[in-house]
Every structure is written in C-alpha cells, then in structure tokens.
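$ ./design --mode recover --in tokens.txt
reading tokens...
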C-alpha cells in the first residue's frame, strides 16, 4: 500500500529536495525502512541504534502523533500521510 511521507527541509538533501515521497509500507517501521532503501542515509537520522524513532524526531500519521498510537508498529493504510517533524530545541527567554 502506498503512503506519502512529508520530509522536513533539513532532510530533503537526502530526497533530492522532494518535500513528499511515496513508499510502500504497512507500518511506520516498514515506511522508515522503505525510505532508507530509497534514500540511503536518511534512516539513521530518524531511528536510533535500537531501531526506535529518535527522541528529537516527531512522527505523525494523518496528524496523529505515533507516540499516542503504537509507535513504530502503527499500522498504515493506502493513502496515509506521514509527517516527519524535527523537534525544535529552545527555552523561554525572559526579559
């Protein structure tokens, strides 16, 4: 089943500047594997050594955070949209 992955600007150097790429996948884990197979080097930016999504990377399926679903095992269906959003570090600046 084909799903669409929205790639954030900092990672587009891996996808030939494509904002949205299509892969065949049945879960978040297989989507990341397919993305890595299609665009070598991008996978290690998204998952850690144990295969988990990195803490500073937020992944959404149709607008829902996978952390509130089944993380890597979140099931996908044809036409789903996955958004990869790097967390922005920062704090409050009190004046």
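writing sequence...
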């Amino acid at each position: 089943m084909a799903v669409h992955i929205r790639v954030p600007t900092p990672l587009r150097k891996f996808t030939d500047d494509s904002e949205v790429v299509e892969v065949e996948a049945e879960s978040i884990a297989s989507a990341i594997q397919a993305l890595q197979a299609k665009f070598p080097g991008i996978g290690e930016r998204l998952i850690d050594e144990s295969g988990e999504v990195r803490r500073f990377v937020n992944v959404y399926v149709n607008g829902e955070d996978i952390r509130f679903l089944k993380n890597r095992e979140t099931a996908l269906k044809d036409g789903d949209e996955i958004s990869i959003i790097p967390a922005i570090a920062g704090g409050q600046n009190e004046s």
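exit 0
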